[in-house]
Design goal:
six-stranded mixed beta sheet; 7 helices; 825 residues; mainly beta; disordered N terminus; single chain
């Protein structure tokens, strides 16, 4: 029913009697994050019933400070809320009253009967001080609030009301109705869980004076690239709906609902319904999950003692054990007290120590589990001096608790041939003694080994991961120099050392008979051997003009430097990221600039390097006798390997487009294409399809997909909001990504773009005293995020090299289970 009347605008002082009367009808125990409520008289201390009493009732307030007729949006909104209250399961229905009389907020008995208040006001100074104090006391006592669109313009002089709403609209917000895409990032909140991932709808879209992200829990964002946001645009993070536990109660706000037609939309009514169910206490919801203060980042390891790597080596990867221990590796770099030998005439050239450390959360102590003598300590310098080999990856056997098996991906120094400047890369299994946290180096079982050139830097890869079927994935870099191709496709066939090419990635990543520049998939067996699972890219028996031309271990070919990979064992989908080449800008002659890349990989395939990058953007071919002269463009659908350094198939599998790519100019650059599908590669014609990404100095560091353990009891686990989200990051922290993204399952395997992204930089802290140089990140069995900070130098460990843990301390969903209401029956 509608209760309509004119509110009294007189300003009177709030009396103690008025406050006591109001509180008498409200819940006496405030929720978390509440401010202390006014102390009620003794006669009200025994009141236990929350607002709403035995039935659930919602008050719509639509008073306006402006003269003239009521906005038709108000009538549409009232009707929509009434329809919502009458729909759904019987125990989730509620009664609705509407009024424009603000004196209702000073009537304690009446306010005590409402579970939630909806502001459909057109804005302005609609409450006098006593009325605002009444609304404040109502929230302190556990009430619920829903603000819609122009409600953010109400009470413009009240800091408390600004906090209740969460943000204020910019005065220069666009007023025209525009169709835009809403990214629905919260897939669990009742207001958004049933909505489309990408929700396309017309409305009026306010900009915010201050972005509330991190202070409120954002459930949906509007994508500014899909409409004209005007001069006060908020950018790539533009919240449009959010919630928070505020001052003892629950507050939900949506910037949508600025048109009459909004309230006729099924999806918008679903959005409002979820907001009303939570604020009315009919259901629980988590409105704390992205609030920055609810997370704590703690450095776990102190700096090394002088001249020792007792706490950490040159950080290069981590894995968490089922009992909570964290094992992390050092690639091979030492501190400045130990000289780096770069002279190939020395038998100790490149010799270093690849270290395995174990952090035990029970003792909060670190044990140096073991050291491997590796090739990989040549330090910095140019392409012909530095090297990225060493101890590159670590994984634990799926039955680690029973067998203690640890798998290490490394380059032993004993395998170096100083004459040919080649080495052996291997994946070996070792046994860790759980009682002492010591690695038995004599227990080594070599599963897989293959040759690499070490004359010239770079790209060793190194990451490893398991799927649910016991298959081990191994990421290998293209073992190719960054130079000699102008920073573009890395396909110069000319440079070599004693017949081994070091600047032609067609020898490695683009070669079906070479294990470099790949993601391998094998099934380790208990005796230290391995078998090949079905479904890899090749069987190893493919031929072309006679002879074996493939390796059956290859699952994915065409990757450049995949340092970090991850399989979500819930879905067995592989997630990977790799570093791109060095060209700072696109070239109409040679092709795209450097693209750092992330990919969702649902089946075996070819990801393009060195023929194509991004969303199947081709490079220009080059070959002998003059590699400086461009030839034709590669065909991403029918790539051919016509390099003189190729010993595999000429005709390659078609390229699958990637999901995320970014260059120094921005995220996911794309260009107009000619009749043959070749992009223009002109910067002035570029469209940036993922504007939340920026580049420059960049080095992609793929992260995990979080899975929430509903049965777990950890007090520090990240909340269920993050379940199923994919973490993507970069080694650098300036303008580079450190984001959680949502993918569309229908398109992710074929190169579909993320449908939502949010920054993690306030949660996984950046800066010199934070986690500045992200090297690896994984969730532990406790649901906390463990992160390696590489440190501030290169090819070494320093005082900033550290293992960190990021925990959640926000608590569970609200309201508490014993404060849930029962709807009208």
């Amino acid at each position: 029913m509608h209760l309509r009347g004119l509110s009294t605008r007189g300003r009177i002082r709030v009396t103690a009697v008025a406050c006591a009367t109001l509180v008498a009808g409200l819940l006496s125990a405030p929720a978390a994050d509440a401010r202390p409520a006014p102390e009620p008289p003794l006669t009200t201390m025994s009141i236990k019933s929350p607002p709403g009493g035995p039935h659930v009732r919602v008050l719509i307030f639509h008073g306006s400070a402006a003269a003239g007729d009521e906005s038709p949006v108000v009538d549409a909104g009232i009707e929509a809320v009434e329809r919502i209250g009458l729909s759904g399961p019987a125990d989730q229905r509620f009664e609705v009253e509407a009024t424009d009389d603000a004196s209702v907020f000073t009537d304690g008995t009446r306010m005590g009967g409402y579970n939630a208040v909806v502001f459909l006001t057109g804005g302005g100074d609609v409450l006098d001080p006593e009325q605002e104090a009444g609304l404040e006391a109502y929230m302190e006592a556990g009430g619920g609030f829903v603000g819609v669109h122009d409600a953010a313009r109400a009470e413009p002089y009240s800091d408390w009301f600004t906090g209740l709403i969460g943000a204020r609209p910019a005065t220069s917000s666009p007023t025209a109705v525009q169709r835009a895409t809403v990214e629905v990032g919260d897939r669990r909140h009742p207001a958004t869980g049933a909505l489309p991932l990408e929700w396309k709808r017309p409305d009026r879209w306010p900009n915010w004076v201050k972005n509330p992200s991190g202070e409120v829990h954002t459930v949906a964002r509007v994508r500014e690239s899909t409409y004209q946001p005007g001069a006060s645009a908020n950018g790539t993070d533009h919240p449009v709906s959010w919630c928070r536990d505020y001052d003892g109660g629950r507050s939900f706000y949506t910037g949508m609902g600025g048109t009459v037609s909004s309230y006729d939309e099924t999806d918008f009514r679903t959005h409002l319904r979820g907001a009303l169910l939570w604020t009315s206490r009919l259901v629980q919801a988590d409105c704390k999950a992205t609030i920055t203060k609810n997370y704590q980042a703690e450095r776990l390891t102190p700096a090394n003692q002088p001249g020792r790597n007792d706490q950490i080596g040159e950080p290069h990867g981590l894995v968490t054990a089922p009992d909570g221990r964290v094992l992390y590796i050092g690639r091979g770099g030492a501190d400045s007290s130990r000289p780096v030998i770069t002279d190939w005439n020395s038998p100790d050239v490149g010799k270093g120590k690849g270290q395995v450390h174990v952090y035990d959360p029970a003792t909060k102590k670190v044990t140096l589990a073991g050291e491997l003598t590796v090739f990989g300590n040549k330090g910095g310098g140019d392409e012909l001096v530095k090297v990225e080999e060493g101890l590159l990856g670590i994984e634990l056997d799926p039955r680690f608790e029973q067998n203690g098996w640890v798998y290490l991906h490394y380059t032993p120094h004993s395998g170096v041939d100083r004459d040919t400047r080649t080495a052996e890369r291997r994946v070996s299994r070792f046994t860790l003694d759980p009682a002492t946290n010591r690695l038995d180096l004599g227990s080594e079982k070599v599963l897989l080994k293959w040759p690499v050139q070490v004359h010239s830097c770079c790209h060793a890869g190194g990451g490893m991961t398991w799927d649910s079927k016991g298959n081990l994935y191994i990421a290998t870099g293209d073992n190719n120099s960054s130079g000699f191709s102008g920073g573009y496709s890395g396909n110069n066939p000319q440079p070599n050392f004693k017949g081994v090419s070091f600047a032609d990635a067609r020898r490695t990543a683009g070669n079906t008979h070479n294990l470099n520049g790949k993601i391998l998939r094998i099934h380790p067996e208990p005796d230290g051997t391995y078998t090949l699972p079905a479904g890899n890219l090749f069987t190893g028996r493919e031929t072309e003009e006679g002879g074996g031309k493939t390796r059956g271990e290859i699952y994915v070919m065409g990757v450049r430097n995949p340092a970090r990979i991850f399989v979500d064992r819930t879905t067995d989908i592989l997630y990977a990221g790799w570093v791109g080449p060095d060209a700072g800008e696109p070239s109409p002659v040679w092709g795209p600039a450097k693209y750092d890349t992330f990919a969702v990989i649902t089946q075996a395939g070819n990801r393009g390097w060195p023929y194509c990058m991004g969303n199947k953007q081709p490079y220009r071919d080059r070959n002998l006798p003059d590699p400086s002269q461009p030839l034709g463009w590669y065909d991403c659908d029918h790539p051919k390997n016509e390099s003189p350094n190729n010993d595999g198939l000429v005709n390659l599998p078609p390229v699958t487009g990637n999901n995320i790519w970014y260059s120094p100019q921005g995220g996911a650059p794309d260009y107009p294409r000619d009749a043959n599908g070749v992009p223009s590669y002109r910067q002035d014609q570029a469209t940036y399809r993922l504007p939340w990404l920026k580049g420059g100095g960049q080095a992609a560091m793929n992260g995990p997909v979080y899975r929430y353990d509903a049965a777990g009891a950890s007090a520090v686990r990240w909340p269920a909001y993050w379940d199923g989200k994919w973490f993507v990051g970069d080694f650098y922290d300036a303008d580079q990504p450190r984001n959680a993204v949502v993918m569309d399952p229908r398109t992710q395997g074929s190169g579909g773009l993320p449908v939502h992204s949010e920054s993690l930089k306030k949660i996984v802290p950046v800066g010199n005293d934070g986690i500045k140089n992200l090297m690896d990140w994984k969730f532990g069995p406790d649901g906390a995020l463990y992160v390696l900070d590489y440190g501030r130098g290169f090819f070494t460990s320093d005082a900033k090299s550290a293992l960190w843990r990021v925990t959640y301390k926000g608590g569970g969903p609200t309201p508490a289970a014993d404060r849930l209401a029962r709807g009208t029956r």
